[in-house]
Design goal:
Helices cover 43% and strands 17% of the residues. By secondary structure, it is of the alpha+beta class. The protein has a three-stranded antiparallel β-sheet, covered by helices on one side. It starts with 14 loop residues before the first helix and ends with a helix. 18% of the residues are buried.
């Protein structure tokens, strides 16, 4: 007679309860990490990503020439929020920021305006 092995199952987890817990944190304003932007004297920006426990995850300088990054840094908005406000897709903004694509003439002009005066876009919110 052949012996069959018992299959071990992972303990059941309550995904609904876990999702409700995470949603309550989000509604309460709890955050896991936060991005802080500080303007530098040379026209660039310093970007620090800080975790909720205070540890610095990333600390970098965005040079003044990186137009899409500098423009968004001045507003303090997320990529998704900034892309929506200026009327481009999130993917397009990401490609501009990562240097894979360059903004067209009108888009480049808009980014220069926003970089020099971030309140313009923030006022549109």
């Amino acid at each position: 007679m052949k012996k069959t092995a018992k299959i071990k199952h992972a303990p059941k987890c309550d995904l609904n309860a876990e999702l409700q817990f995470l949603m309550a944190d989000a509604k309460a304003g709890a955050w896991a990490r936060k991005t802080e932007f500080t303007k530098r004297g040379d026209g660039g920006w310093r970007r620090r990503v800080v975790r909720a426990d205070g540890t610095v995850e990333k600390d970098e300088v965005i040079p003044a020439g990186a137009s899409a990054q500098v423009a968004r840094a001045g507003t303090g908005l997320s990529q998704a929020q900034f892309a929506r406000l200026i009327g481009v897709s999130l993917r397009t903004l990401q490609e501009w920021e990562q240097g894979r694509k360059k903004p067209s003439g009108p888009a480049s002009a808009l980014l220069r305006i926003v970089a020099s005066n971030p309140e313009v876009v923030v006022a549109l919110r």
